[in-house]
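In this supplementary section we document a worked example of the pipeline. Step one takes a protein sequence of length 488 as its only input; no multiple sequence alignment statistics are reported here. Step two produces a three-dimensional model, which step three serialises into structure tokens for compact storage. The input and output of this example are shown verbatim.
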Amino acid sequence: MSTRAIPPIPDRWPTLPLNPERATDRAFLQNIQGNILNGHGRRESRLVYFRFKNLKNRARHREFLKASVESGWVTSAWMQREQSVRAKVNTGSGNEVFASLFLTRHGLKALGNFERKTGWVFPADEFLTDHPQEFGRSKQELAGVSRDRFYRVNRAGMWILACACTERLDEAVSRLRDWCAGYDVAVASRVDEGTTWMVDGKAREPFGFVDGISGTNFFAATQPGSARPAGAILEDALITRAQSRIHECGSFLVFRKIEQDVQKFRDFEARLVAAVGRVKGLSSLKDEIAPALIIGRTRDGRPLTDVLGGHRLSPGQFDDFDFVGDSGATGCPFHAHIRRMNPRASVQGQGFSKDTIARNLPIRRSATYDPKKLLQRSVGEGSRAWPSSGVGLLFMAYVNNIERQFEVPTETWAGSSSFPGPHMMKFDPMIGVPPDHSGPVTTGEPWTWRGETMPTPPSFVRTLGAEYFYVPSIRWLLARGVSVALRT
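The serialised model returned by step three reads:
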């Protein structure tokens, strides 16, 4: 594939929802890497990390960028759609491999492509402190969030490979490793395995909650529960022309590998069940309500406010709600994860309207990691014991602005005992506490709900690895990352 094989980026970006039948939309999608505007849809994935072996061989590494597209190691949003269409017609086509390529700041510097010469500096620069070789690490992360030494090593970038067939996926990883060697690129021996944990026919995250309810899909044909949130726009997912003509239609990827202590969560949940059982009129609902006091939803995804309101919503409506009628948090606590991370309403006195909150949300495309199948083993053994380590989340989210769409929600919102309203939790136990914090997760005041004192939750997670990546556009890759007129 050459730069002439794809049309220029349209002068005017498409209107939403995207419609691939429109010529302008097709041209737009051919310039964007897949998985950003719609999840790749495969149940199995692999994160493959790489580095440039000889930093003096810059010309060869630039050829590597172009060849990654020409050799099929990058899937455009348009190609992703075509694969999906083929899979619906022919089930065998569902085993096609999806691929997406990302670069770290270190990789960009090695390519000579840290864009100071063109007058455009990556937004993440402001987060750099005494480790300038790390691309976009926040001050908190630089303090030691990446507990696994593997993620502290300088690397040039990462691939996501995904496929419905595990064997074909692992074969693709092996082929990619061999292909990279021809461009003086070394692939790490360690690969992160992503999977979809299915229970009762539903994809769930390791604590057992149905996943993907609040998804983001910019296309016309969406499934219930994956509709585009109000206020979300293409400019929240992609780099705009106003920011950079060279990087237009690129993006940024936030990555965190988060280990989840499932046994600790289940043990704490049992204590919550006992406490909820003492609340007048709720004894019969205690098993359903208890975990929802932490998350804001039941394990099947029903909002806690709907449980208390009489179970009026159908499963297809589980993302169609707000907290307007619960301003006092007598239904869903202010500290509940989904309310803290998306209040779904203006937050008075803190400068966040409903629309600005929607624009602060990242485009989330995560996967579960469980290489030893510990979660399935726990279910098979009657859930007598759950894993305390070895399972968790490969958190991935696309953003236009790292500070606005990631740092603010995960540090400012999740690290405040006054957002979106006053509560007793200093930190969100689903995100974890800062590595330099040694005190309790609460403000020291008792946590009460509907007149009953509730147990204080510990942190249930820890971050093993963290990185920010640049997600190039297809045309940027085909141009070898050179600062040329990509629009002609």
